[in-house]
Design a protein that fits this description.
Layout: H1 10-17, E1 27-28, E2 44-48, E3 51-55, E4 63-69, E5 74-80, E6 86-91, E7 96-97
Parallel strand pairs: 1-4
Antiparallel strand pairs: 2-3, 4-5, 5-6, 6-7
């Protein structure tokens, strides 16, 4: 897994993942692992009294996780939309493709 900061052309992937007018910013899956609430939708985990719960009142949540093959130097990503749709992506050197 790689941090979002080291991934290529994240703006291209974000434009394909979320509508241009959304206030949602994808959460870096290498820092905060994707978490799902009881209805199967992604949520932001919050620690309350020593336990971790989903904060569904915090609004929509999206995740992206970037992976790099160190031998081939190729990139892949896994995204999760606020609706819970999971997609695998490949970076072709210029843009992200499904």
């Amino acid at each position: 897994m790689q941090a979002v900061a080291s991934a290529p052309n994240t703006s291209n992937l974000e434009s394909q993942l979320l509508p241009a007018t959304t206030p949602v910013t994808p959460t870096d899956g290498s820092v905060t692992p994707p978490t799902f609430g009881p209805r199967g939708l992604p949520c932001t985990p919050v620690t309350v009294s020593g336990a971790t719960i989903c904060d569904s009142s915090g609004g929509a949540t999206a995740f992206w996780t970037f992976l790099k093959n160190t031998k081939a130097s190729s990139w892949q990503a896994v995204t999760i939309t606020p609706a819970g749709r999971i997609q695998k992506w490949y970076y072709d050197g210029a843009a992200w493709d499904k």
